[in-house]
Amino acid sequence: MADSTLAPALRADDDSFLEFEGTTPYEDYVHASVLASLQQPLTRAPAEMGFLVTAQVMELWFTLTVHEWCAARAALREDDHVGAMDALHRSIGVLHALNDSFRPIASLTPAQFNGFRAAFGKASGFQSAKYRRLEFLLGDASRSMVQPHRGHPAVHAELEEALTQPSLYDEVLGYLYRRGLPVPEHVRERDVTVAYEPDAGVEEVWRRIYAGPQHDPLVELGEALTDIAELVLRWRGAHLMATRRAMGAKTGSGGSPGVAWLEKRAVRPVFPELWTARGHV
Ligand code: HEM
Predict the structure, then answer these.
(1) Domain range enclosing 107
(2) For the chain, N or C: smaller number of CB within 10 Å?
(3) Cα–Cα–Cα angle for 182, 199, 90, nearest 5°?
């Protein structure tokens, strides 16, 4: 049924809302035609467009996740609890959208995937620089993961820079320390260019927080981080399942053993002590 409040406006004598000097303000802001120019499938396979668009959409969600986590990290550095919580909550919304984005390709059959797989050659999400930044922010820094990007100086420089920055989790732990919690010195002074290792002292910090009043702002911070960890693990699980359905135990296009490799990657802990501390509360 037509919307009676909008319809008269659309029939108005003044049709200035249909006339623009150049491109529409929407185009100028959203760059929709630039986005639409980026879908260039390599085959006529019916499922390829969905695969390509899904990968591009996920790249955008990775970008937004990185943006929000950098905002949260900057806020924590300033001891701005509210600003950090706002950014973390926005990122939780993004991660839900990211995970829902698997739908179009979640159940590709091997024959459907084979219809375009050879065409993209050695391309693999493993080479996604934004995903790598996202993992660095979680605390999973790795110099060797920067290497594939040597041929793209701007991206390489961005990743190199990211590698030297404390992760979101490092900033959380620094913040907890300034709030009076006994985060060990070797954790606060750790080499941030290598992956974070679980620590008994940090587990005790979270245990203390969780054993206290449940509406304490630090419990709320812990819960936002737990939501994030769970959603990242869910992304990995959904990716693994889609891969298993589409290609079984075949070797990955990026050169890994495929599913066997992803199974190991999928279970790497995110914010480990937030999980282990629960067993001691
Ligand atoms: C059915 C579709 C897909 C299949 C069969 C698949 C398969 C694989 C495989 C086998 C790997 C391991 C590396 C390799 O040897 O290539 C991998 C890694 C990866 N894929 Fe996918 N993938 C699919 C969809 C996607 C999509 C849509 C994205 C989003 C951009 C994506 C992002 C990634 C990322 C980020 C990694 C690296 C994971 C890590 O480093 O732990 N994949 N994929």
Answers:
(1) 39-280
(2) N
(3) 80
Residue 10 predicted with pLDDT over 70: no
Distance 124 CA to ligand 1 centre (A): 6
How far the first Cα of the chain sits from its last, in Å, is 56
255 lines ligand 1 (CB under 6 A): yes
Helix, strand or coil, per DSSP, at residue 141: coil
Decide if 227 is inside a domain: yes
Q: Is residue 140 part of a domain?
A: yes
Question: Which atom of ligand 1 approaches the CA of 258 most closely?
Answer: 10
- Cβ contacts of residue 149 below 8 Å, gap of 6+? 127, 129, 155, 156, 159
Which atom of ligand 1 is least distant from the CA of 59?
A: 30
- Is the pLDDT at 9 greater than 80? The verdict is no
**CATH number for position 241:** 1.20.58.480
pLDDT tens-digit series, residues 15-47: 888 999 999 999 999 999 999 999 999 999 999
Give ∠ CA 149-157-225 in degrees, rounded to 5.
90
- Report pLDDT for 135: 98
